[in-house]
Design goal:
By secondary structure, the protein is mainly β. It has one helix and seven strands; from the N terminus they run E-E-E-E-H-E-E-E. It is globular and about 35 Å long.
């Protein structure tokens, strides 16, 4: 197991988000929150992982810009740490939100 992590469940983010195919190599998706409390996005499938705190620093050090760890709001309005994307990276990116995963 990478970073001693494991998937504990699948869930969906709240409909405040859009998903983009980022123009970085290697290709990566970027989850971006839309305007505060504006539901212009859609519910997107999301994996919830469990990781020991002792592995968290090493994991986050490997995340390249424009991705980062921040609070993600799930469909039930709970909040968990998750991987999001800075909005500047979506300027020429492809909106893949309709794919929902």
């Amino acid at each position: 197991m990478l970073y001693q992590s494991k998937i504990i469940r699948e869930d969906e983010v709240a409909s405040y988000y859009k998903l983009y195919q980022l123009l970085i190599i290697p290709l990566k998706p970027g989850l971006v929150r839309t305007k505060r409390n504006c539901k212009e996005g859609t519910s997107i499938k999301f994996e919830v992982w469990e990781m020991p705190l002792s592995s968290f620093c090493a994991f986050t050090a490997q995340i390249p810009l424009p991705l980062s760890i921040g609070k993600i709001i799930l469909k039930d309005d709970s909040q968990i740490p998750g991987c999001g994307c800075e909005s500047y990276a979506t300027h020429n990116a492809v909106d893949i939100t309709p794919l929902r995963s």
